[in-house]
């Protein structure tokens, strides 16, 4: 992090990213596997597509590469691409979903990566919901458990990627994936919602990231932590105004986006975005 001469605000640099996304053509809320989902509430799939297209276009404007996987008709949650896999150094750990409703997505994402030339592919033994629970922060991987990914998948990821995996225990069912409770901003900076973690995990986070951005309950509840950072720009729900202000104070460029239709399934910007980390990137 480079300090600018006049002030203490750091100068931020974006790094070009490669993202995999899935158009919400078949998005719907037909079952309930997290507290945000209410199958009795109407879903406007066209609106979801429109909002998602804006996110996709935004990544293009920021200079990132976006690839698409075909949505499957029987997988209304497939738009949440972050759950499809974890890719580090071009190595791919497939996802294995906790809920039967999403089981078919794991093999579909795995097939996409195989079809696109990824050779180091690990079919998962233990339940893990991809980047929903695995967040790469520099040389380490922060890993969520408590609701979805099994703690055993943390050891599996550590073995496969050869990077230290630090387990984090989630305790509030509204923040059931790690990427709903925390976002990685740079290799060594994060923002998170302390109230979503067990006391032990909170202590670990304070130790690892003493200067982290902390989210208010209000910002957390609009999914403000479900954010995507390229090192400079941070794409997050536009309702998370407190987080946007804190990010600006630290030299980041927050970009608010409206993904409220996708929030009905319990996801926002980060959930819709799987980062494909190849060795060069
Ligand atoms: N309805 C989906 C589920 O509950 C939402 C997934 C959100 N994805 C995420 N990366 N947090 O599984």
Write the layout of secondary structure elements.
Elements: E1 2-3, E2 10-11, E3 18-21, H1 45-61, E4 65-68, E5 85-88, E6 91-94, H2 105-115, E7 121-122, E8 134-137, E9 140-145, H3 151-161, E10 165-169, E11 182-186, E12 189-192, H4 199-208, E13 213-214, H5 217-221, E14 228-229, E15 233-237, H6 241-249, E16 253-257, H7 260-263, E17 274-275
Parallel strand pairs: 3-4, 6-7, 9-10, 12-13, 15-16
Antiparallel strand pairs: 1-2, 3-17, 5-6, 8-9, 11-12, 14-15
Description of the structure:
This protein is α/β, with parallel strands linked by helices. It has a single domain, classed as L-arginine/glycine Amidinotransferase, Chain A, CATH 3.75.10.10. Helix content is 24%, strand content 22%. The strands form 6 sheets. It has a 3-stranded mixed beta sheet with strand order 4-3-17, with helices on one face. Strands 5-6-7 form a 3-stranded mixed beta sheet, with helices on both faces. The protein has a 3-stranded mixed beta sheet with strand order 8-9-10, sandwiched between helices. The two termini are 18 Å apart. Bound molecules: arginine. The site of arginine has 16 residues, from loops.
